[in-house]
Amino acid sequence: MTTKHILIVDDSKTVRNLVAFILKKEGFRVTTAEDGLDGLEKLYSQNEIHLIVSDVNMPRMDGFSFIKAVREQQGYRDLPIVVLSTEGQEKDIQRGMSLGANLYMIKPAQPEKLVRNVKMLLG
């Protein structure tokens, strides 16, 4: 079985490092990006990304625009996307889900729950 590759998109270095640490410990390969534009660049240039974990509030390109851009690309319509954000209002959750996120988690997320959801989405 090939190691699943996860892209983490978050403008907080602390959050990127923490989520990367949690997922690497579970055996995943991880690539990080500091905002939506960086995320798109990494997504298009990396060998097969299997899942994305993205924040919403980021400079240059926010998470909502990032999800929309990913979903507009034919090859990424079914790529699992987990939003991990401090924005927990119903309108934010609904917007994220309507743009194509598979799951919306509120920070700080419990590591076990994040890992369980990632594994579930990856089948």
From TrEMBL:
UniProt keyword annotation of Plastid present:
no
Response regulatory domain: residues covered: 5-122
Modified sites of kind 4-aspartylphosphate? 55
Q: Indicate yes or no for the key word Phosphoprotein.
A: yes
Q: Where are the transmembrane segments?
A: none
Q: Which UniProt keywords apply?
A: Phosphoprotein
Pfam families, alphabetized: Response_reg (PF00072)
Q: Which domain of life is it from?
A: Bacteria
Q: What InterPro entries does UniProt report for this protein, alphabetically? A: Bact_response_regulator, CheY-like_superfamily, Sig_transdc_resp-reg_receiver
Annotated GO biological process: phosphorelay signal transduction system
Q: What is this protein called?
A: Chemotaxis protein CheY
